[in-house]
Design goal:
With 382 residues, the protein is an alpha/beta fold. It is built from 16 helices and eleven strands. Strands 4-3-2-1-5-6-7 form a seven-stranded parallel β-sheet, with helices on both faces. Helix 5 packs parallel to helix 6 (126-142) and helix 6 packs antiparallel against helix 14 (322-338). The protein is globular and about 60 Å long. It starts with a strand and ends with a helix. Bound molecules: magnesium ion (MG). The site of magnesium ion (MG) has 4 residues, from helix 7.
Length: 382
């Protein structure tokens, strides 16, 4: 088995990006870096470009272009700036696989460009499928492009499905840790702070996804992501809270048999599975010890307290541009919560209001998605 893959990492200075570079560093014979990109973290981007001998970098913040260019002047790294450059670098001939580790809606256009350039996608940007899952999956089919999930739950489902491609799925269970506020009442949630919300019990992640995890919106987005990745109906997707985060998700087949994928929570595993697929390569991550986890427990999510899960199910069932509106409003709500402008429970109200106000489009084009995203953000009024 020989793996030689040239990788573009969109969002290389974030949580997923830096962990992906750990995987590349541990496997220099298998993976090389073609492209690295960052929104604003110029210094880390420069250091990464030198350390991994990147062919090109993009600094999205154009005010930092001169600085990056000057710092890399002694190398042959090509330097680009601005969000529009992201859609160009993913199409470079040398790139085999594009890891989309951008946060939020910003991942949509670069992912479309990568698919159109026939690049394999390692998808860490779930919002792309939430916003425009129908368009993305159709486009990937047309271009014969594979989308490999990096999200740990979806990687788990994907791993359970290996060797089962023709066997009908009855349903899947996405596991949820429940986040830092599992078991809280609405009264307790009314006063939680962002410092509390940013402390996830099991996973080390970026700020946006950590808040989404605390509010269960992350699981809602993942439900929609799973629908598109695995071609499921809403009725086939269920969520179960599993506080230990050892069972990463489960598939139930039509004979009632269930398969689960397990392991200690570490994002580097799903990252490397997506980059090396269909191969498994050695990793020196700590191994699971049964004696550390004598009990694995499961419980129903509290959908009354954490309203976001049902808002996401509603958006998924409604289809069209509804999930795009949900996602846009949620991005605004999370940013506002992090800026102390909205309370923790207020985030769901922002999302619900935007979903009520949105002009519903049943069969949206890319232009409709772009317009919906803009409108939903405006209507949040934050
Ligand atoms: Mg996940």
């Amino acid at each position: 088995m020989e793996i030689k893959r040239k990788i573009a990492i969109l969002g290389s200075t974030g949580s997923i990006g830096t962990q992906a570079l750990d995987v590349v560093r541990a496997n220099p014979d298998k993976f090389t870096i073609e492209v690295l990109t960052s929104n604003t973290n110029a210094d880390l981007l420069i250091a990464q470009a030198i350390a991994f001998d990147a062919n090109a970098v993009v600094i999205v913040d154009t005010t930092k272009y001169e600085y990056v260019k000057q710092q890399l002047a002694h190398t042959d790294v090509k330097v680009f700036a601005g969000a529009a450059s992201l859609t160009q670098v993913v199409a470079f001939d040398a790139v085999d696989i594009v890891l989309t580790a951008l946060v939020g809606y910003a991942g949509l256009l670069p992912t479309i460009a990568a698919i159109k350039a026939n690049k394999t996608i390692a998808l860490a940007n779930k919002e792309t499928l939430v916003v425009a899952g129908e368009l993305i999956t159709k486009l990937a089919q047309q271009h014969n492009v594979n989308i490999y999930p990096v999200d740990s739950e979806h990687s788990a489902i994907f791993q359970c499905l290996a060797g089962e491609w023709n066997n009908p799925i009855e349903k899947i269970y996405l596991t949820a840790s429940g986040g830092p506020f599992r078991g809280y009442t609405r009264e307790q949630l009314a006063t939680v702070t962002k410092a509390q919300a940013l402390k996830h019990p099991n996973w080390e992640m970026g700020a946006k996804i950590t808040i989404d995890s605390a509010s269960l919106m992350n699981k809602g987005l993942e439900v929609i992501e799973a629908k598109w990745l695995f071609h499921l109906t809403p009725e086939q997707i269920d969520v179960i809270v599993h506080p230990q985060s050892i069972v990463h998700s489960l598939v139930q087949f039509t004979d009632g048999s269930m398969k689960a994928q397990m392991g200690l929570p570490d994002m580097k595993l799903p990252i490397q599975y997506a980059l090396a697929y269909p191969h498994r390569i050695y990793a020196d991550f700590p191994r699971f010890n049964f004696m550390d986890y004598p009990q694995l427990t499961f419980e129903q999510p509290d959908r009354t307290t954490f309203r976001n899960l049902d808002l996401a199910y509603y958006a998924m069932r409604k289809g069209g541009n509804m999930a795009c509106a949900l996602n846009a409003a949620n991005e605004v709500a999370v940013a506002a919560f992090l800026a102390d402008k909205v309370s923790f429970l207020g985030m769901s109200d922002v999302v619900e209001t935007a979903m009520q106000k949105i002009h519903f489009v049943a069969q949206p084009s890319l232009e409709d998605y772009i317009a919906t995203d803009l409108q939903a953000r405006e209507w949040c009024g934050l």
